[in-house]
């Protein structure tokens, strides 16, 4: 059995995730492919993730890839999380994750509507009819906000209280529910934000105007196998539990996907991990490197078992829900955290003594991030203890 120690895992991470200066690129879509997908729950994350791995790219380059070239697309997928993915990955994400998610969301929202008693008859059929009417309205407009669509489709303004027995609960319209279902079904897409690249308010467009051929269909089993293959290349070696966590699938689904791949078991300092059979060549150490990665960056969020790169820093750098804040990396491990203050200053704190050479490289990365932000100010959606301290 091949043994892969922590040093080699960190070396693989550095190269595969384009964190060393030699591996960085200004090709935005290629950066995303290197990580499979980018996290996009917090809109600023994807932009800052690209900035950390590029040479001279700017936020406008990410916007161009998303909204002009349309080589990338924002969607809900694994673990009902928002991601930005290369368009060629869409059939895989649709079949492996989004189709099941659409059915789950439809059942959940349908149950709320039924419990509220606002619909006579078959709730599922009623909801499907509202979806179709909303899609047609969006086709007629070409692009629209949820508020604009609710004017065209009066039933979108149907009010539902999901927890009427709770004092804090209030009725809300079903507009967002319907748009979520249409989005995960691949019938509509999120377009440009209504504001800067940190905004989470988007216009919607029908898939027909973005991808005239729509999203190609494929068998779910084949899609799951291909997604795991891409993940193992970017994040392997790793234990099966990490694959299960990242995908959000059942253990049975993960094992069925792995059975379609040629994988080998490797020793990860005493625990078992998996690696693609044709990807076992040793990874040489890279030149010294440092990086400032944003909150929810796909690298720290790529594994559930994180001791080999996180060490004892979880309490300061993660919130109570398991979301990582902005992190400082030195040669494959997390050594501190950073934040942007209200005046735009980038501040950071090292949690380990890493020497003057490392500190110089980190200072240079902080300056790069400051330039990337420009006049934009962005508070992470999920705030961690260290990020709060640094901005107090």
Description:
- By secondary structure, this protein is of the alpha+beta class.
- Helix content is 44%, strand content 15%.
- Strands 10-11-12-13 form a 4-stranded antiparallel beta sheet.
- Strand 11 and strand 12 form a beta hairpin.
- The longest helix has 27 residues.
- The model has no long low-confidence stretch (mean pLDDT 94).
Can you give keywords for this protein?
alpha+beta, 392 residues, globular, 13 strands, 16 helices
User: Secondary-structure element order, as H and E?
Assistant: HHEHHEEHHHEEHEEHHHHEEEHHEEEHH
Question: Cα distance, first to last residue?
Answer: 50 Å
Percentage of helical residues?
40-55%
- Percent range for β-strand residues: 15-25%
The overall average pLDDT, rounded, is: 94
Largest sheet: 4 strands, antiparallel
Number of H/I helices: 16
Shape by Cα distribution? globular
Q: What is the topology, as strand order, of the major beta sheet?
A: 10-11-12-13
Q: Radius of gyration over alpha carbons?
A: 22 Å
